[in-house]
Amino acid sequence: MAAGAALPLEARAPDAASAAPGARPRHVAIIMDGNGRWAKSRHQPRTLGHKAGVDALRRTVEAAGDLGLEVLTVYAFSTENWRRPASEVEWLFALLRSYVRSDLDRLDAAGVRIRVLGRREGLPQDILDLIALAETRTAANTAMTLVIAFNYGGQAELVDAMRAIARRVLLGGVDPDSIDEAMIAESLGTADWPDPELIVRTSGEQRLSNFLIWQSAYSEFVFTPVLWPDFGRRDLEAALNEYAGRQRRFGGV
Ligand code: IPE
Ligand code: IPE
Ligand code: MG
Fold this sequence. Notes:
Blueprint: H1 8-12, H2 16-19, E1 27-31, H3 35-41, H4 46-66, E2 71-78, H5 86-109, E3 112-117, H6 125-137, E4 144-152, H7 154-170, H8 181-186, E5 198-201, E6 220-223, H9 233-244
Parallel strand pairs: 1-2, 1-5, 2-4, 3-4, 5-6
Helix pairs in contact: 3-4, 4-5, 5-6
Bound molecules: 3-methylbut-3-enyl trihydrogen diphosphate (IPE) (2 copies) and magnesium ion.
One 3-methylbut-3-enyl trihydrogen diphosphate binds at residues 31-33, 75-78, 81, 205, 207, 209.
């Protein structure tokens, strides 16, 4: 590495306080999984599981605020979820619409800053308008940032960042040798907040499914068998307790 270049983990690592044993993370990211299986176990359509998942989201956002998290990121729709039947995709879009419409006032009053992470291309215009409204209205809020990953994929995000950097190189402003971890991190949709110290996935699956692949380089993982619609405050607290017992070394001793 070139002399003077910043190490990525110096640039973006959580501060000592949130990495120390017993600490609480600043940023928790959740892969909300298991809606379909939750519905299936009740002999209900998958859509009902997604609807119940929105209630779990409400509980979790409120709990995250009470527990003092700075950032909560939730994975709501991946770039791969387009492979689902069109009717289910439409239902997931409808739920985003209804969630923002019904909860925006309350989230705003609670001081929550809303950010939507993911590709805008492919999303219907009314959703784009709602996203712009939610982000603009809550931009100055400081109690907590709620990041909704929607039409998000970590590889797509990296592709977009590479394209942006390549354009800067072509225009002559950026020397390829000056491209480093910090520049890439700053080119991602997540540039404005710290990387997640903790990633939680519900429903027993143990994979990232293209979520925050760059940002999770040193994240701790908690996998719980709880299906997302059943998730709530106690499950979040349990994950935070598990995190508090972890030893993070960042390659050191
Ligand atoms: C998570 O639940 C919600 C989204 C991926 C949008 P799933 O719909 O993936 O539920 P399962 O995994 O089929 O149970
Ligand atoms: C990950 O869940 C995406 C979201 C939670 C939005 P999936 O259910 O789509 O993931 P896979 O297909 O099981 O990996
Ligand atoms: Mg799933």
